[in-house]
Fold each of these.
Amino acid sequence: MSSEPLVKLADVNFTYDRRPVLKGINMEIPRGKVIAIMGLSGCGKTTTLRLIGGQLKATSGAVTVNGQVVSELDNDGLYALRRRMGMLFQFGALFTDMTVYDNVAFQMREHTDLPEELIHDLVMMKLHAVGLRGAQKLMPSELSGGMARRVALARAIALDPMLMLYDEPFAGLDPISLSIVGKLIRTLNDALGISSVVVTHDIQESLKIVDYVYFVSEGKIVAEGTADEIRHSDEPYVHQFVWGEADGPVSFHYPAKPFGEQIYTEAPRAR
Amino acid sequence: MPDNGLTRALQGLGRRVTDRIWRLGFAARFLLATVMYSGTALRRFNLTIREIYFTGVLSLIIILVSGLFVGMVLGLQGYDTLQRYGSSEALGILVALSLVRELGPVVAALLFASRAGSAITAEIGLMKATEQLSAMEMMAVDPIARVVAPRFWAGVISMPLLAMLFSAMGIFGGYLVGVQLIGVDEGSFWSQMQASVDFREDILNGVIKSFVFGAIISWIAVFEGYDCEPTAEGVSGATTRTVVTSSLAILAADFILTALMFRGA
């Protein structure tokens, strides 16, 4: 196996509508590892994931995946690369007009000429891996949030990707589903020999399963390290995030005029 | 330039006009992409057949019932007018020509825009809002080829068939009222219709009209769905725009096509 990282972001900037979203991001995703990108909502985590998946193009800098610069690929090249990636969306993004079975079989039918018997066996293997072999005939509307996330995971690994991208995989899950999804991310990563990027703000669950963490705030990496280093970090932002403190570098109050001034200047109009 | 109300109003107007033109250009490029990426929809025709079921077959009830009532009203109104001139036996011609040339394609298209066009927009819009289209892209499947093109072609194929059924049902409605209820001579009703309705001039032109209307509705419906804001409000607005824009576009296109087809007839 090559020692080159599977994904590398070198001095990546991304601007949306003249607003800088990412500023000088440098990041490496080594092969076989689970990496988390953490930060508050709107800090640029999902944008980073979309740059890796080629859904967005960096304004400057280079995003390299398996030796290929994503922004330099044409449409065919990008689609060829994506066939070797899997992505789990925040709420699963299952195709609502298809059964669980057809959702998992979707990519196999689109990209291969495999006979239906073989597709059946492969779908069963993928569903077995996420513990939902018995749910093959259900429609997405009949699944709980946790089950939908697991089906989406089975669909994402359908073509044995080299890289898995997870966008908020723990959002809105009950504790049992949360733990199951967390374990599946780690187990599948190790069993399939893939690399994984998890974008999340669920600190406690993700620190149990990841090898390395990048903290992003206002489009910049403000801290990075192993799970243990993050847990014991003195960095004020990381400390506030890990321990869920209401006030700190991320202020409790939204920017406003001084309290007294606001009361005296706005109260008469309100009355 | 002074920053007064008039300047701001003119700037706002200019921005709205350029936005509309930009969007029209984007819609034209989208149509081009849909046609260019239609290989999947035509090669794997079962994808298109499935959509023909949802857009065409499920619109049958509203089309057939509406066609029947429109034909019945034409029978009543036509008889009332024709009998003043002693030409009530020409009722068959009036009903058939009105339906085949105008009412069939236009009314069926308006109903199709409300029933199927809105459904296509809502479906694609919700797929976008729930990230299904993004998921498809990330699975290296082009949503324009896999989702948009089959729905577009299903609309283009369904519309002429529905318009023909609308006209046939309307003629039957006119027959029920004119011949069975009022008592117009049955032989005159059918023979005059057969003698006066020309296949190329009337029927074929009607089919061409409905084909064009089908393309317009399907284009607007898939574009509005694909381009909508991925929120509940965005999908709702896009669905409304599909019905309003399609209806106006159908009526405008009908005038242009009628002027081109029937100006010497």
Amino acid sequence: MPANIYNGEIAEFDCQIKDTDYAEAYRIYDIRRGRSKGREWKASIFFAGVIVVLCIFMMVHLSVPDYVFFGIVMLLCIYGCVYYVYWLSNRAAHRGMEIFESSHLLHETIHCHFYRDYYEITNKYEFIRRYYTEITDCIETPELFVLIGGLDNKLTVIAKAELTDEQKNALSKHFSREMIKQYRIKRK
Amino acid sequence: MKPFLEETFLITEEDYVNMSLERKKLLIPKKNRMIVLAAGIFALCAGVMGMIFLRNSLYHAFSYIVLILLGMYAISYYDVVDRSLIRKSASDFYTVNQKALHSQTIRIYDSKLEILSENRRLRIPRSFIYQIAEGNTSVIIFLDKNEFIFFPKRIITEPQLEKLRAFGGDQYKKIEVR
């Protein structure tokens, strides 16, 4: 259906997401609003700890117990770095996969209708209307549109594979115009 | 078919904060709490012993004081620190999203569940429910490992709660909250 700004309708389509789509969307949500939020600065604190301990090792003459103590501190800091940079993100994707497996509703084909001020999602069991003012994040990746918002940061995932090029462009343009602060493009 | 539970309600800030605390208690395994508590006690004891018997210099004393503080933080983390943080973030979240909250009607039948509000209609069979958790103040119904709906216990009577427990069956869980 062509985008028709005049009457407020942007796009209408059916969409079904796969487990990998939801896992990636959940990973993005975790980075923006979940436990992975701020992982860069948290990892950098631990990295700074590693540097400080290395400087202590090089510049100060220590006894054996002190080497052991600072060695343990350095190992903990390295663990913190690896945890925040690598493990946390992978655990989020794994958790997204688990959530998808445990849900009946996520396996349903949804009918999406995007309007100027809100969007509606319908399937056999559920109808949701969400206004863009409720959205806290709108992330576009090469494969997905991920909208985070509503009470308890609900996740709306739209797989681009189900859309025509015209629909993708209409949605991109609409999101970038309606949600200036929340809209982000993630290249990878 | 008549529902055994049919109520219309509006979530207050207190409802939302209490639910957040109970949900967090449900999601954190007891094993994790025990590990953090044990680590905190160990760090506290190690720090105190170090201060008494092994303190040779100022920087040793400083290290043991840091260890004692970390131990106290770990011991009090889940009962004090985490609860305060959850209370604050839940209250802030409710304040920001207050306008999106509408009154909801919940209807629970023997074999299905309905939630109706201005912007949402949900009608699912009993088999779609992942878990039902009962805390001191809220009942949380999980639709999967993440998504949930909840309502405060103040809106339902004891006979309705008994029927809800039977409705939950094997997926029913009581949250142990102090």
Amino acid sequence: MLNVNHILETIKMIDEEDLDVRTITMGISLLDCCDADIDVSCEKVYKKITTKAKDLVKVGEQIEKEYGIPIINKRISVTPISMLVAVSGGDPVKYALTLEKAAQTVGVNFIGGYSALVQKGFSAGDKELIASIPRALSETEHICASVNVGSTKAGINMDAVQMMGNVIKESAELTKDRNCIGAAKLVVFCNAVEDNPFMAGAFHGVGEPDVELHVGVSGPGVVRAALAKAPKDLPMHEIADLIKRTAFKITRMGQLVGSIASERLGVPFGIVDLSLAPTPAVGDSVAYILEEMGLEVCGAYGTTACLAMLNDAVKKGGVMASSSVGGLSGAFIPVSEDAGMIAATRAGVLTLEKLEAMTAVCSVGLDMIVIPGETSAEVISGIIADEAAIGMVNSKTTAVRLIPAIGYQVGDELEFGGLLGSGPVMNINQTSCEVMIRRGGKIPAPLQSLKN
Amino acid sequence: MRAVLTVVGKDGVGILAKVSTKCANYNANIVDVNQTIMQDMFCMIMLVEIDQLHIAYTEFVDAMEQYGSTLGMKIHVMHEDIFQAMHTI
């Protein structure tokens, strides 16, 4: 017989501590859909997605039921659409509308991959796609866009950084009657990964197989609950051990779900992304984990150190539990999606500067942060450049997902609903960096890139 | 295939009998039972074989969970693999 305590522990994790599989994401290559005629290309894209992913949602729901584990999202990531635009030319938004139609047909929550990779420069299709992002996001519901503007190997493409400041602002403006939701579906990356199952930054890299299945686990609530039981004088390294043990269990669950799903769908298993992804549900918060370690409020001094340890312990615990780990793997700190972060921002303890420091030691970057609508495009580009620099120098993925709240003032709240949550408009430093941003050009790759 | 059926709630007369009768109705063979009272809560764990069910497994899950709520208890039915995966190396 199975151990009674283990059974009850698992049920408690799911019932009370919000344990879930955040997403099963099917990566689909669209390279074989390219055609010189954009309409033919769109038709092939629609056909391929609706064929390969036709059972994705059904199988996901089956597994949920049989194993009793909630699988919150079923998603698809595709080859960066800029590559298709390079061949077909034409209005890239046609692809966005095609993807939207496919998303609705197969019933997935999101399709990611309205993307361009321009870290070293623009090739055919890239500029057209980037310029079309605001329109594509305002005319669709389920499509996510991302642009990779830098990498440790290539440096930072400052022309792209400059463009993205405008693109983010425009995305928010075109959707200002819908809480600026456009900007919430757009990520600017440095060192983007090719097998990420999480939105909004998922795309299916060119080095990946034709089709594969990734899993993104979640579980901040479980880690928090484990730490809540620990005595207040437990040394930090023992806290790290507790996190490792919990991360192991969470990841094993993800690994099981992923392998069953890939078997039933007849698609190779890609990776498990070992991430602590918060939800707006109270308790399912990364900020609360940090506070459980002994901070009064997330954002206090000590936050960066706690987050660094958490991020590392999650990976150490998870890596042994999975046959292949990948994606972003680490702790996420999306402000609007995390009840503790929202509270800390409202209290004025968590500032953009502190968040920037935190991104140097955690999984991704400045995520789901609502900034004043009047923030200039250049200041947004400046934030992107700083974040990309952290990623480039530290050989890690960093990202920026900012929502300029058009028509809102500092202290107002934007309500996105669902997993995206809600966020108070954060006061940020509006000092101009216009001259620097307008220089354009490139920040050369750092010495760290010369590893051979 | 085996599933783990857990029943948690306030202790009362005949819970084991009621739940096992319900299992028998669906032809779920109970292979092991463990019952305990933890902090005044009745807590029963059954290991059931689900290969010979009269209805689809997912319907069985729904039916048992619903039956739990009529008893005022929380019933979960989960595939045993999940517990093996999470708690054994």
